Amino acid sequence: MKTIWINAGELSGDMQAAALLTALREREPELAAIGMGGPNLARAGQKNLFRVESLSVMGIMEVLTALPRALHMLSQIKKEMARLRPDAVVLVDAPEFNFRVAKIAHGLGIPVYYFIPPKIWAWRTGRVRFLQRYVKRLFCILPFEPAFYAKHGVQVDYIGNPLVDMVNWPELEKIEPIKGRIGLMPGSRRKEVEALLPEFGKAARILLQQGRDVTFHCLRAPNMPEEKLRALWPSDVPVAFDAPEDRYTAMRRCGCMLAASGTATLETALAGVPTVVSYRVAPFSALVGRLLIKVKWVSLTNLIMQKELFPELLQERATGEMMASQLAAWLDMPPQIEAVRAELAELRRRCGEPGSAARAAEKLLEALKES
């Protein structure tokens, strides 16, 4: 019986890794999975020796402050990996942590595969040499990635995007958005929620003060307690805090959304919901980012479409006033928001057909037989 170690470094990776593990076990029911993950991987059958929630940070300063915890976890991972000797290690995104896991596994002679590799095409492209040395094969989920990696001599497969399977468009298309409902997705990390949710609240207050017939629904991440969110939200502004079982149906019921940059903005795009993208990190992290980042946009939707389809309000522009202004423009000009919705059909086409987890599982099992 083969055992794989899946290492997801954040909650979005946990969700997508769970789809991969489900597909693997459909083909190899005896396959055992251990490693680092969250609730989704646990439900898919992985024994989580380490919890993904312990490490959900983003930005240079945020990573540095979590460093002692991360180093302790890495030493424990090395001990467990050496003791259990899995047949392969599958890394999921989270390069700051997972690159170190790759070195540990490589040092133990365990083959390493990367599902959803890091966005090194965006910044620190020199890290491609690390992948050449320590990773046997990459499974990419963004349509522009294979050309980048192939150019650098890295073994790569494009499998399509797992979110296409999760966001069931044929079913969602039948759902009519509720007029005036604005969705809020402030993220799953404590720092990003603390930075963004108060500004979302300001935007909501401004729209209500303008006399608009709007309601606000916050789709909270499973790891984020409602009390925490309520403490960051203005008490005089009505809001519903939902932890929906079917998050995509909940998204689809919104006419438009405010969302933290990240996987969520591709989810909303695939669900056909125009979204204002926002993000803030610590000033030092922002400065480093401006110096190093090589792409025009931060949201995956805009990168795939190669234009700013979703407005991006980042750092000093991530204010309630600017968010309210953009949402008001959409509310006042229905043809503008309809044009965004129409273009999302092309995005769905570019993200590929359903079945990406199955394609990844087949290619990974092939690779394991060869190793």
UniProtKB/TrEMBL annotation:
<comment type="function">
    <text>Condensation of UDP-2,3-diacylglucosamine and 2,3-diacylglucosamine-1-phosphate to form lipid A disaccharide, a precursor of lipid A, a phosphorylated glycolipid that anchors the lipopolysaccharide to the outer membrane of the cell.</text>
</comment>
<keyword id="KW-0808">Transferase</keyword>
<dbReference type="GO" id="GO:0005543">
    <property type="term" value="F:phospholipid binding"/>
</dbReference>
<dbReference type="GO" id="GO:0016020">
    <property type="term" value="C:membrane"/>
</dbReference>
<keyword id="KW-0443">Lipid metabolism</keyword>
<dbReference type="InterPro" id="IPR003835">
    <property type="entry name" value="Glyco_trans_19"/>
</dbReference>
<keyword id="KW-0328">Glycosyltransferase</keyword>
<protein>
    <recommendedName>
        <fullName>Lipid-A-disaccharide synthase</fullName>
        <ecNumber>2.4.1.182</ecNumber>
    </recommendedName>
</protein>
<dbReference type="GO" id="GO:0008915">
    <property type="term" value="F:lipid-A-disaccharide synthase activity"/>
</dbReference>
<dbReference type="GO" id="GO:0009245">
    <property type="term" value="P:lipid A biosynthetic process"/>
</dbReference>
<keyword id="KW-0444">Lipid biosynthesis</keyword>
<keyword id="KW-0441">Lipid A biosynthesis</keyword>
<dbReference type="Pfam" id="PF02684">
    <property type="entry name" value="LpxB"/>
</dbReference>
